[in-house]
Write a structure and sequence with these properties.
Strand order of the largest sheet: 3-2-1-4-5
Radius of gyration: 17 Å
CATH class: Alpha Beta
Helix content: 40-55%
Number of strands: 7
Number of domains: 1
CATH superfamily: Ribonuclease H-like superfamily/Ribonuclease H
Structural class: alpha/beta
Distance between the termini: 37 Å
Length: 197
């Protein structure tokens, strides 16, 4: 049973070959990771079967972890309409699965996620992964598939956006009015050399 001060967020990085997920808990403003991983879809040739697998796995995760909210990364722009359509369907299936359980859903552009997690909207996926590990106290040597770390980043972004807080160079959330407008990965490394090796 969850405490009143606790919130659980599931982040989703949609995909038609690999879909990442990350589930975080926030308790007394402290972030921690509950579970993360990927849903492998490459082996399914039929797109409808992929959607069924997404539904089944997301439903399982929602039943186990009972998240309060879901956050999804919005699909990137694609010049290929078929690719965009299939990706949109995958995202829609994850979204519908949450909405069927009356779990609120939010959506964030990839640049917004990077900005929220690292302080730089143009940061690399590897930088998002490293910062997610720091914020969630995950061993820096732990190998996380990039789709899963992206999903953790989406969940972290949603937490910061929904509570109007941002990570400071000391990685402790504070109100936006108390933090400088520019926070960057480089500043974090400079101010915390002992946390990044």
């Amino acid at each position: 049973m969850k405490k009143d001060t606790e919130k659980i967020i599931i982040g989703i990085d949609p995909g038609t070959k690999i879909m990442g997920f990350g589930i975080i808990k926030i308790e007394n403003k402290i972030l921690s990771v509950l579970h993360y991983g990927v849903i492998h879809l490459k082996q399914y040739d039929n797109h409808a079967l992929k959607l069924k697998k997404i539904y089944e796995r997301i439903t399982e995760l929602l039943n186990i972890y009972a998240p309060d909210e879901m956050a999804l990364e919005s699909p990137f722009y694609s010049k290929n309409p078929q690719v965009a359509l299939k990706l949109g369907r995958a995202q829609g299936m994850a979204m519908a699965t949450a909405l069927a359980k009356e779990i609120p859903v939010s959506e964030y552009a990839p640049r917004k996620v990077k900005q929220a997690v690292t302080g730089n909207g143009a940061s690399s996926k590897e930088q998002v992964a490293e910062m997610a590990k720091l914020l969630l106290n995950i061993n820096k040597d732990e190998n996380i598939i990039i789709d899963a770390s992206d999903a953790l980043g989406v969940a972290i972004c949603h937490h910061f956006e929904s509570t109007k807080i941002v990570p400071t160079p000391q990685s402790s959330p504070v109100s936006r009015s108390q933090t400088p407008k520019k926070t960057s990965w480089e500043n974090f490394i400079k101010d915390n050399p002992n946390r990044v090796k």
